[in-house]
Amino acid sequence: MSISKKNIPENIVNLTDRGSYVNARLPWAFVLLVIAICVMPFLLNLIGVDFGTEKHDPNASLSSHELQVISLRGAFEHTILEWTGFCIALCTAFLALSSRHLTTQLIGTALFFAGCMDAFHTLATDYLIETVADNHNMFPFTWAICRLFDALIMIVVLGFFLVKGVNKLDANLKVVVSVSFLFGLLAYAIIHLSATSVTLPQTMYPDALMTRPYDVAPLFLFIFAGLVVYPAFHKRYPSLFSHALLISVIPEIATQLYMVFGSTALFDNYFNIAHFLKMMTYLVPFVGLSLDYARTNVTLQEAYQFNKTILTVAPLGIASYRSDGQCVSANETIGTMIGTEQMLSQNFRQIEFFKNATLLADAEETLSTGVDKKREVHVTFGKVLYIECYLSRFIINDEFHLLLMIHDITNRKQAEKACQVGDGLSTAIYKNKAFSCLLGRVEKDDFYGETEFLTSSLRKLERDYLSAKTFPFFSPMLALMVMTDGVSDDYFPPDKGMLHLFGDLVLNGIIPVVPSALTKEQMKLLKQKKDEYMFVEKRLTENGAIPTPICSVSEYAKILNLSIEELIATPALLAAGVPPEIKQCDSTPESRLQIWLDSYHVRGSFDDRSLVVVF
Asked: Which CATH number fits domain 28-54+64-305: 1.20.50, 1.10.10, 3.40.50, 1.20.1070?
């Protein structure tokens, strides 16, 4: 399934979208294995192992047919090694062309034509392609030409991406076909020139230090690529595939070293080692690309499961529809509101919900124009619901789809009807700092005990008017307090008074807070001066006046030589001052609140006291 991308740079989703440069590396064990394979033949040579093609015993009694077969043993081994490398290059190319990234496609194409040059080398030396030059010179010359072509084509392709980048290119079939044609034309020209040349230069010098001087140029090119081009490309386009290309330089260089300084004849020890290692130069990128695809598949599966889980548990109801109106998917939230089976089984053009809520016209317009739509709808699905509907268009497999998102705003609608009206106030205490926030504004700001009746103006019930007087609170909340003016007037003005009120509620054991450990000096000080912040008030009951201990946070702060703001900022220190008389009282916070409301004394306080605390 292909999903359209909007303005996503190719270098961001490079190669196979595998993440960071650090994570786009093959395991060190694999790198060490490649190095070991390159070095092992040389070490085995030191202990007497010879990988050269075995010569037949001239004293052996063999038929003419057997002698012919034995004489071709080296050619058979050479053909197997070269053709195996070509097949691996072919598989790598097909795998790369299945990628959606231009970099991977063109690198795969380059590897394919490099393999084609090796195939030509094999066919020419096996006389399957008609040539006019002597085979003794054709073998090493075409080998050197193919190696030079292999090095140059990779340097040119990777260098092109490093210089030009990918953003300026379109990853389409036209670019791939054009570059493939160019590579193919170049490969054919080299093949034709080599096959039709009557005389070819001497390329092997058995007695020299460099037995194959024509292989020196590819050696230096591979060294340059390994030190400059491949590392820069991997850093620019990190992936397992680009890292495998970098690692493939190891057998590339080893191959050239064996040929330049070792091989003195066709099918000798170093000749066969070099051809085996050349096969490894195709195998390493193939392994890297295969692992890249495997990781991509795992990543996509994880992403699919992740997105599926998010859609399933999302608080928004989400459904998607094809352009013909048939539902494709619906999550649990929309199923809870409307019914999943109903959504999945119906075409949105036949759903009454769409018709009655005038969503049908919005959906058709969104599908045709791509303009997102939002509508607030009042519907009934067994119960009255207020919902916000969002409509958006997206593309999958070149087909327009409609995305419907439903947000249940019933509670918000009901809350709008519960905006503060009249006297009293609501306030929130911040969790991490000593500040309070008023959640509503009373009718008149000069004093909190005044009220205007709802019947004084119809405007009092209008949504905009009520919303303008109601303030949201988005920070972590320590406590929410809603009170009548009988309490708010006693703690006027509210900007500091609400902190004072919160402190009194904690100190009188109404709001439970885990106390912090006091120092010995603080404990001794509070014990000595307890009477300075705890007062005994007489609470009138049916049984007469009952002495009741009441604590004052302002006096408690003075004893600790702190401001009320500093004390509120550390509620645990505040709770540590709750006296034993209150702690040991066998009562609930609710009953202590009622006792405190009946008992605390403020001069001039005469109104009714009602207080709701959410902590």
From this structure: 1.20.1070
Q: How many CB atoms lie within 10 A of CB 527?
A: 9
CA distance 556 to 43: 86
DSSP labels for 91-116?
HHHHHHHTSS-HHHHHHHHHHHHHHH
Buried-exposed string 548-573: b where 16+ CB fall within 10 A, e elsewhere: bbbbbbeebbebbebebeebbbebeb
Compute the distance between CA of residue 612 and CA of residue 483 in angstroms, rounded to an integer: 6
End-to-end CA distance of the chain: 51
Q: Compute the distance between CA of residue 19 and CA of residue 238 in angstroms, rounded to an integer.
A: 8
Determine the residue type at 153.
I
Reduced to 3 states (helix: H, G, I; strand: E, B; else coil), residue 463 is: helix
Question: How would you class 45 by CB atoms within 10 Å of its CB: exposed for 0-12, middle for 13-18, buried for 19 or more?
Answer: middle
pTM: 0.56
CATH superfamily of 314-413: PAS domain (3.30.450.20)
Cα(81)–Cα(54) distance, rounded to whole angstroms?
16
Distances in whole angstroms, Cα of residue 188 to Cα of each of 173, 182, 185, 420, 489: 22, 10, 5, 86, 97
Nearest CA among 118, 99, 117, 121 for reference residue 108? 99
Could you tell me the residue ranges of all domains in the chain? 28-54+64-305, 314-413, 421-614
Nearest to 471 by CA among 425, 407, 408, 431: 425
Cα distance between residue 275 and residue 560, in whole Å: 87
pLDDT at 171: 46
Residue 478, number of CB atoms within 10 A of its CB = 19
Res 2: pLDDT = 36
Question: Sign of torsion, CA 152 153 156 162?
Answer: negative
- The CA distance from 513 to 261, in Å, is 83
Mean pLDDT of each 10-residue bin along the chain, 615 residues long: 37 40 82 96 93 68 63 80 89 86 82 82 74 72 85 86 67 58 73 74 87 93 95 91 94 95 89 93 93 88 84 82 86 73 74 74 89 82 77 88 86 56 72 67 50 47 60 70 83 83 87 73 72 78 79 85 81 78 78 85 75 84
